[in-house]
Amino acid sequence: MADHKLLAAGWRHLDKAFDLLLHVLDEAVPAGLRALLLGSYSPIGIWQGATTDNGFALAEIEASPQTRMRCRRQARRALVCLHVQPDLVLRRDVALPVGQTSSHIHDLLRWNFETWTAFKPDEVWFCGAPLEDDADRLRIAFVERRHLTPILDRLASFGLPIDRLQLSETLVVDLPASRRRRFRSRARLASGLMVLAFLLGSILIASELRQAETRLALRQSEIRRLVDAASAASDAADALNKRQKAIDALAGSLSARPSAARDILQVVDHLPDGVLVESVSWSATILQLVIRAKLAPDELDIRNLDGSAITPVTLGRDQDGFRYQLDFKPGDHQP
């Protein structure tokens, strides 16, 4: 029994949560789209009394097939509410039992209905609400089923099952066989489809973002590789340009002073292994070389043609080694 009550309470909370979701959808979704997906929740009124501009009179529905057809057409996508004659509605103002609140009015009314009225709960349709000026008291409105059952059966035979009973301006009874459940089923289906579409869209967007990130990373890697290749090509072009300038300068010097070729060859032949000559210049008595070597100054042993040691002048150092300046006295440099 306790498990049954717990399960019933759980379903009530779930139903409230779904009502909240429907309220959010009602606020967020445009009215036209909401009516298309879920149907209209604005009820169609059928009045027991005189004809009204807001709905249909019961007498007209019973007398006119055209009115019945028009009412059925509107009822396909809306709830149908029967406005009960005021003289059939009974009312009571009662005090809430000690320790009870009006949070679960329907259960409270069912448990205490026989105490407050002369009827059993299954003999009437009833509802209630707290009084506006006294929250500790309830106003109960109810109508005997025997007065309305023939009317409800007759309307159902016309294809107009009643979903609600309007007992007053503020008190409404949802009948157990109300089509609200069908509307809610459609709402649940529509909500589920909307959530599913949102999840699928999120997954597809995330997948597209991951693929875009992968493509971007590949493009960036390719760009870095091209930049590195362009930088290396630029460095090689600069080095080649410097070498060409040095060769052009050397060729010009040799053409102007033919005997210098012999002196250069003699000096270069005496350089240690691994020494590269970057530039050559000379005057009447001095042959000046700028060389590059891996050896440090104290490890470099270079001698003049007469055997005397030459002290190199360090010009700088980089990742390729040291740059030195050497001054030779190779002999007669006259042409």
Topology:
Layout: H1 2-28, H2 31-38, E1 44-47, E2 56-57, H3 58-63, H4 65-75, E3 80-83, E4 90-95, H5 105-116, E5 124-131, E6 134-144, H6 145-157, E7 164-166, E8 172-174, H7 180-256, H8 260-269, E9 276-282, E10 287-293, E11 313-318, E12 321-328
Parallel strand pairs: 1-2, 1-3, 3-7
Antiparallel strand pairs: 4-6, 5-6, 7-8, 9-10, 10-12, 11-12
The count of helical stretches stands at 8
Helix and strand content put the structural class at alpha/beta
From N to C, what is the helix and strand string? HHEEHHEEHEEHEEHHEEEE
Cα gyration radius (Å): 52 Å
CATH topology of the largest domain: Nucleotidyltransferase, domain 5
| CATH class (first level) name of the largest domain | Alpha Beta
Largest sheet: 5 strands, mixed
* DSSP strand tally: 12
Task: Please state roughly what percent of the residues sit in beta strands, choosing from under 5%, 5-15%, 15-25%, 25-35%, 35-45% or over 45%.
Answer: 15-25%
Uncertain residue ranges = none
The order of strands across the largest sheet is 2-1-3-7-8
Morphology: rod-shaped
CATH architecture classification name of the largest domain: 2-Layer Sandwich
What is the terminal separation in angstroms? 126 Å
What's the mean pLDDT score? Answer: 76
Number of domains: 3
Tell me the helix content.
40-55%
